[in-house]
Write a structure and sequence with these properties.
The protein is mainly β. Helix content is 2%, strand content 54%. Strands 3, 4, 5, 6, 7, 8, 9, 10, 11, 12 and 13 form an eleven-stranded mixed β-sheet that branches. Strands 1-2 form a two-stranded antiparallel sheet.
Length: 162
């Protein structure tokens, strides 16, 4: 495993998202990403559970966007979450998130971007809850639907303690 890839950073909640990033490390980190999709959900299909050190999991903030990146053999997954324009991510529940492309400006709603194997849903609807977002790591859950607000759902969770 590439040690540079494993050297992840998470933000300090007191400074707010987009402020100084603080590298964190621990001898026994918890790093898991899991999801389960209903039949017809897109782009995530079926279910999967990833955990370090067998899978590479990175969590970081860039430009006001919280990014979760998973590499597992030839499989890849990226989830990006952002607050509405003019706000910073913090603990709490965000409803009505819409697709926000990787280079798109912030939206009036929260933003979501889910990518795997070259597939992305550009008509995404999502809700997410951040239970922990600080220098020790991130805990969050999300529900994403593609195509319609009542479409088949993918439910996922991220637990990242560095």
């Amino acid at each position: 495993m590439n040690p540079l890839r494993r050297a992840c950073v998470v933000l300090t909640a007191a400074a707010g998202l987009g402020a100084a990033l603080v590298p964190v490390a621990s001898a026994d980190p918890l790093q898991t990403v899991a999801y389960t999709s209903e039949a017809g959900a897109w782009p995530l299909v079926g279910s999967a559970q990833y955990s370090a050190p067998g899978d590479e999991i990175a969590v970081w903030e860039n430009g006001g966007v919280l990014k979760i990146d998973v590499q597992s053999g030839l499989k890849d997954l990226r989830v990006e979450l952002s607050a509405p324009a003019g706000e910073t991510l913090h603990t709490g529940t965000y409803t009505g998130a819409r697709f926000r492309g990787q280079s798109d400006p912030a939206l009036a709603t929260p933003g979501v971007f889910v990518y795997t194997h070259g597939d992305v849903c550009s008509e995404a609807y999502a809700d997410f809850t951040i239970d922990r977002l600080d220098a020790s790591g991130v805990d969050l859950t999300f529900v994403q639907r593609c195509g319609a607000p009542d479409g088949p759902a993918t439910r996922g969770e991220v637990h990242f303690t560095a």
